[in-house]
């Protein structure tokens, strides 16, 4: 039956559960390793802890702040806000454990001699004493406070207390020394800088006086900002006048151009509107009145009338006056235009002269102005330096509280704090358990052998036909009611359902390597077939290392080889067994000249002969990876089953064996895989395949009466005593 490609939610949940059970299975199988590692680690930790020297601890608490003055200094400069420093306490932790501090502690308490005596040495260098002390000093910050706790560990409780207090004392003195050194160094530096600035101011003053004399300018005129502003104002005034004149000249140029383009009455009318004068306006008015008078007279008395003549004479005179007036206005406009142009030229010349003078005066005043600015800068710097120096002198005279204050003196420890035996052993137990688990899973990871049914189906791509428990013997002795028999009944059922054709009745069981249990498997499988009423022949065709005759305790002197070499007939070599319906054919002795006898025509004829006489024929074979006999048998029989021993050989070897069977006998030849030698009691993964049957039989045994149990014991005893007798019952069939 082909598996469906669709995975249901239930199947997914089962896969996840089985995945968890796989881990539990590994833990159960490797529990010996886990427990061994666990006990070894715990025992080692316990022994080491027992021999460790007990250590006492004493802790000193001290408040640590940055250096600040007690009161506000001159003008409030002493109350500068201290910026937050996230690394302050971490830095102080390192200072407390530095050589500067600890070497002073060693010297004050003579710890080098104490440590030398403890180590039974004549003397101990300070370097080694520092290494010993630094390992036994612990510094930490008390939570949410500015208090630092110094903890000292030592085998002597009094010495531990003295060390903790001495470290705090030395650190407090060290901070005071640093503050004094910084103040002295700062005052000296400021004094030197102030002296240098005094010299710089004197030199700058001399330079200013000399450059003022060289420039020939007054102090006010040489002030750079005022001087520049005056020049700028003059240039701005000239530029404004020049711009105004250019605007007027431009308008006059346009007026003159239009005037020149006109003549006669048009010129008169243009000038009357663009550049009117009282005279021009009066003459144009008189001319218009006289012209109206002439027109009126002409309509009344005619052109020869004296009044008309008189009016025309007046008009001629007015025209002459108008022409003179227009000529005068035109000449006046042109004159005014020339005057504007001249004024513009004069202003441009004044601007050039002013600019040249400004540049010249600026060049003269620039060195003096620069020297004066340098002097002002030097004066301001000197003033600031003087104020800073005064401030530092005032701060030095104001008393300061210590930035380090011991608030908790160390107390003598009552009980040892190291080693923490309970903690160490608990940690060792956890570490041992974890290491055991890691080692177990690592060994499992390195183990590439077949472990589960999923391993077989995924790696080999073949179904699992049966799961055989561990320590299974010959079922012919255990009887049909043996709990082990059920596993072979399941295997028999799966084989019958897996074969493609009911006429397939010859089978061999192969394995990749030696010792995987193929001979026991095929013998017990043949026994189960016989117990179910089939006529079965089991042939020991492992001509290299035959073993089936040992199970039946019979001779292997004659058998298959004698028949194939035509030395004996089939009736002479086949023997009966205590199991009804089960016959046995030993391998016989293999002559050295008969290698390859299985790959002969006689073997093929033998197979056809026994198929006609028996319902099923089973052939034992050597490992398929060692010799070619197993491959030959797989190609000659109808069916083959691959036996894989649980956790014995790598999967690649088993896969190679399966490929060889399929290559020789075809894919239809290999029915599936049998997992052998499973420890059901340790591996719960396989309980559901075989465990239920054991439980069922054990309950049936409990329900038996005492008489049945006693009779059963007698039967089993007689069976053991009669084992040789049963073997003696194996006799020739014919």
Characterise this structure.
The chain is α/β, with parallel strands linked by helices and 734 residues long. It has a domain of 276 residues: P-loop containing nucleotide triphosphate hydrolases (Rossmann fold), CATH 3.40.50.300. It has 25 helices and twelve strands. Strands 5-12-11-6-10-7-9-8 form an eight-stranded mixed β-sheet, with helices on both faces. Strand 11, helix 22 and strand 12 form a beta-alpha-beta unit. Helix 15 crosses helix 16. The longest helix has 92 residues. The two termini are 43 Å apart.
Give the tags.
alpha/beta, 62% helix, eight-stranded mixed sheet, 734 residues, 25 helices, Rossmann fold, single chain, four-stranded antiparallel sheet
Topology:
Elements: H1 9-29, H2 31-51, E1 56-64, H3 88-96, H4 99-109, H5 111-118, H6 126-135, E2 137-141, E3 147-154, H7 157-215, H8 224-260, H9 264-274, H10 278-300, H11 306-397, E4 404-408, H12 421-446, H13 453-459, E5 464-469, H14 475-478, H15 485-498, E6 506-511, H16 518-531, E7 536-540, H17 548-552, H18 560-564, H19 570-573, E8 575-576, E9 582-585, H20 601-613, E10 616-620, H21 629-636, E11 639-645, H22 651-665, E12 670-678, H23 687-702, H24 706-721, H25 723-728
Parallel strand pairs: 5-12, 6-10, 6-11, 7-9, 7-10, 11-12
Antiparallel strand pairs: 1-3, 1-4, 2-3, 8-9
